[in-house]
Amino acid sequence: MIPRYSDHAANERTFLAWVRTAIALMAFGFVIERFDLFLRYVAASLAGQQKFAPHGGAFADVAGLAFIVLGITIIVIAGWRFVQTAKDIDSDNEVAGPGVRFDLALSGMLGLLGAALFLYLSHAVLPLI
């Protein structure tokens, strides 16, 4: 049996959870980037009804790429944390935890990106009064 197997298994499950989250973020970024094509199609079909505010898709491209870059960054950091935690588990010395700064920073960035996407879609779907 592997020494401290349950700790290593928990470390691996955490790593895989971060990787799944990162893949979901990258897929969401791809969808956001391609969503502008749908908005252009809807704008063309609703052009006479004035229910749709046409706009440029530069923001959608930047937001989509930001989610993709964020996903890649999460995978890199998760890999680094996985290796560090595995070394810490095998060490006989007591080691302090990594803290919550990264987790809070990630939550803040996702919140800001979500708010920016909300504003983008609200201006895209609702005409400015």
Question: Describe it for me?
Answer:
- With 129 residues, the protein is mainly α.
- The N and C termini lie far apart (68 Å).
- It has helices at residues 5-45, 58-90, 101-125.
- It has one domain (5-125).
- Helix 1 (5-45) runs antiparallel to helix 2 and helix 2 (58-90) runs antiparallel to helix 3 (101-125).
- It is built from 3 helices and no strands.
Q: In this structure, how is the largest beta sheet organized?
A: none
Which runs of at least 5 residues are low in confidence (pLDDT < 50)?
A: none
Q: Give the proportion of residues in helices.
A: over 70%
Rg value: 21 Å
* Tally of discrete structural domains: 1
The best one-word shape is: elongated
Determine the N-to-C terminus distance. Answer: 68 Å
Summed over residues and divided by their number, the pLDDT gives a mean of 81
Please state the structural category.
Answer: mainly alpha
β-sheet strand percentage = under 5%
Secondary-structure element string: HHH
Count of separate DSSP helical elements:
3
Number of strands: 0
Can you lay out the helices and strands and say which pair or pack?
Blueprint: H1 5-45, H2 58-90, H3 101-125
Helix pairs in contact: 1-2, 2-3
Keywords:
mainly alpha, 3 helices, 0% strand
Summarize the structure.
The protein has 129 residues and is mainly α.
